[in-house]
From TrEMBL:
Highest taxon in the source lineage: Bacteria
Organism of this sequence: Microbulbifer thermotolerans
Catalysed conversion reaction: hydroxymethylbilane = uroporphyrinogen III + H2O
Keyword Zinc-finger: no
EC numbers for this chain: 4.2.1.75
Enzyme class: lyase
Keywords carried by this UniProt record: Lyase, Porphyrin biosynthesis
Annotated function: Catalyzes cyclization of the linear tetrapyrrole, hydroxymethylbilane, to the macrocyclic uroporphyrinogen III.
Entries under Pfam families matching the protein: HEM4 (PF02602)
Highest classification ranks of the organism: Bacteria, Pseudomonadati, Pseudomonadota, Gammaproteobacteria, Cellvibrionales
Family: Belongs to the uroporphyrinogen-III synthase family.
Pathway in which this enzyme or protein is active: Porphyrin-containing compound metabolism; protoporphyrin-IX biosynthesis; coproporphyrinogen-III from 5-aminolevulinate: step 3/4
Name assigned to this protein: Uroporphyrinogen-III synthase
């Protein structure tokens, strides 16, 4: 299976600042890689949202559970915390959704609560099953994320009696040059990789706007069963779910997909 990607053309869609390792991994496996970012991250740096962020970070020592939903949330959230807390308070427990987020948090010197039975597939549902998040009545939970997004985590913890706040660090937007790049993309790749549901939604929008319906026929590798299901709803004819959004899991899913073609 190691040679499955040799000569295959793969379209990747990660944000430009995050695609380097993934691109290099695919190229090292022999793939020809095209990159058209379908998501951009805009940090919140001013306005009312910035003031809310600052207040939440200053009160971080009052938090019982700190949950990070993405690598971007780790990068930006830890930057904020390091600015105001040179030594992190002892109170909060830390959690990460997904293997890549866990790795990013640990790279900042922060250990997070994981599940011994499913340490590499910690999606929102798995995280909510952890014993430490069952009896949370009156406890404070701060969820580091971008603006908007899924509400399952917050809704569930509030239903269990927790006091939940969202620390919204960034906005996710469609890059201005995504559609023009796709309109000029005159090849049919062997597979497409996407790393989030919003990336997938943006890709589907651009395919429709660019009048490139053949791209809906290209197999898509997704980071979870949920996103793979969304791919079917958006019109993609074939979607494969990796175990998680980490590079190793995405590569294995891509290799398995193309090995069966």
């Amino acid at each position: 299976m190691n040679n499955v990607l040799q000569g295959k053309r793969i379209l990747i869609t990660r944000p430009e600042h995050q695609c380097g390792d993934w691109l290099a991994l695919l190229q090292s496996a022999g793939a020809r890689v095209d990159s058209i970012p379908m998501l951009a991250i805009e940090p919140i740096e001013k306005g009312p949202g910035w003031q809310v962020l600052k207040a939440q970070v200053l009160d971080f020592d009052q938090v019982d559970h700190a949950i990070f939903v993405s690598r971007n949330a780790v990068q930006l959230g830890c930057d904020w915390l390091e600015d105001y807390w040179p030594q992190l308070p002892q109170g909060p427990r830390y959690y990460a959704i997904g293997a890549a987020t866990t790795s990013a948090l640990r790279s900042r010197g922060i250990e997070c609560v994981t599940s011994e039975s499913i340490p590499d597939t910690m999606d929102s549902e798995a995280l909510l099953s952890l014993p430490s998040l069952q009896n949370v009545t009156g406890q404070r939970v701060l969820i580091f994320r971008g603006s908007g997004g899924r509400t399952l985590m917050g809704d569930t913890l509030r239903a269990r009696g927790a006091r939940v706040d969202y620390c919204e660090l960034y906005r996710r937007v469609l890059p201005a040059d995504a559609l023009p790049q796709l309109q000029q993309y005159n090849v049919q790749p062997d597979a497409i990789s996407v790393h989030s549901g919003e990336t997938l939604t943006n890709l589907a929008h651009c395919i429709q706007q660019a009048t490139r319906p053949a791209l809906f026929e290209v197999p898509v590798v997704c980071p979870s069963v949920r996103v793979a299901g969304l791919a079917g709803e958006l019109g993609f004819q074939r979607a494969t779910a990796a175990r998680n959004a980490g590079d190793a899991a995405m590569l294995a899913a891509l290799q398995a997909l193309l090995a069966n073609d």
